[in-house]
Request: fold
Amino acid sequence: MITVALGSTNKAKIAGVEKAFKKFFPNVRVTPVKVESGVPNQPLSLEETYKGAYNRVMNLRKRVKADFYVGVEAGIFGFNGRFLDVQVVVVFDGEKWGVGFSPAFEVPEKFLRDLRGGEELESVVDRHYGTKDVGEDIGFIGLLTREVVTRIDLTYMATVMALVPFINKDLYLT
Reply:
């Protein structure tokens, strides 16, 4: 049994991480643990988003024992005058680190003022669409793509990318 400690209790993140690990490891148990990210609720740079995922891993290691520690953080970063939402996943097995990114999508300009004011994207989306806790389910991307892509999918893809060094150990040093 491979044990995976995940630094989140978000249902979509749990489902995405579990799906990714099960693609490569036949017998997996994911244990969600609420830990602090050490960054604002809405990270507004790629560096801050990465730091949140990394901090989740570090805080997990202080609380539980597992074969893998996983931190997932969603954030927004500026690129060429536009702002994109991305998920960053950091995986650590006690020796080796892996980092992965999800596909990124553009955040509507009309939401940016509230985000810059300190509001979390999920709150802005819930208010705009009349949803509740959309980030626990299909996510903003699920609404935008009519569920062609969901938050589970983004977490899954970012986790698969972070697992690349672990499934190709001969190519990646510790």
Notes: Helices lie at 11-24, 46-63, 109-116, 121-129, 139-144, 151-167. The CA atoms of residues 37 and 52 lie 5 Å apart.
